[in-house]
């Protein structure tokens, strides 16, 4: 190709371009020269391909074995790297799971405390005594029981006191129950 460009740029010795007859001959020469250079280039490309094929056949097994070895070393390196990365990822995931568990436990504790506080406020509004109130009452009852024992008598067990109280309630309710049927019969007799 370079030869063609050089030939196209040539002029005559006088510096003028050749005439038409000479121009036709030059064009024919240039075409022939171009054709030869293209044929030579194609021949060189063909020979280079044949040489590469021959070398690939001769050195192909050596090259193939070398590529296998290189692939094996790369695979081992990749496995070591992946194993290290897997441990790193496992540790990271474990720490994230631990953090999530801690957050969930904290949130649950806060929710439980809020719920207990609201229930306690509701019970106080309803007048239900709390644990502290009941403990204080129990302490006071124990103190009064001890005082009674010290002053002279033994205090009756609480169960007996509860039975006496229930019996006295029934005794007070029985006369009232007897009176009400009589009143009902009197009112029937007076109305008839």
Descriptive labels:
192 residues; single chain
How far do the termini sit from each other?
A: 146 Å
What percentage of the residues does DSSP assign to strands (E)? Answer: under 5%
Unreliable spans:
174-189
Q: Provide the structure class.
A: mainly alpha
Q: How would you state the average pLDDT, rounded?
A: 75
Helix content: over 70%
Q: Strand tally, please?
A: 0
Detail the topology: elements first, then pairings.
Blueprint: H1 2-9, H2 20-126, H3 131-151, H4 158-191
Helix pairs in contact: 1-2
Task: Describe the fold and architecture.
- The chain has helices at 2-9, 20-126, 131-151, 158-191.
- The protein has four helices and no strands.
- Helices cover 89% and strands 0% of the residues.
- α1 (2-9) packs across α2 (20-126).
- The chain is mostly helical and 192 residues long.
Compact summary:
The chain is mainly alpha-helical and 192 residues long.
């Amino acid at each position: 190709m370079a030869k063609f460009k050089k030939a196209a740029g040539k002029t005559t010795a006088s510096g003028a371009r050749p005439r038409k007859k000479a121009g036709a001959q030059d064009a024919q020469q240039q075409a022939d020269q171009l054709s030869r250079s293209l044929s030579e280039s194609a021949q060189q490309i063909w020979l280079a391909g044949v040489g590469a094929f021959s070398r690939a056949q001769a050195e192909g097994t050596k090259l193939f074995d070398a590529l296998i070895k290189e692939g094996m070393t790369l695979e081992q390196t990749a496995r070591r790297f992946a194993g290290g990365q897997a441990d790193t990822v496992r540790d990271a995931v474990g720490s994230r799971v631990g953090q999530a568990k801690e957050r969930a436990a904290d949130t649950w504790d806060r929710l439980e405390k809020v719920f207990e506080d609201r229930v306690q406020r509701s019970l106080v509004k309803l007048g239900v005594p709390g644990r502290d109130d009941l403990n204080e009452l129990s302490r006071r009852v124990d103190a009064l029981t001890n005082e009674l024992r010290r002053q002279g008598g033994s205090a009756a067990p609480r169960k007996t006191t509860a039975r006496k109280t229930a019996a006295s309630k029934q005794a007070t309710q029985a006369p009232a129950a007897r009176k009400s049927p009589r009143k009902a019969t009197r009112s029937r007799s007076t109305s008839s």
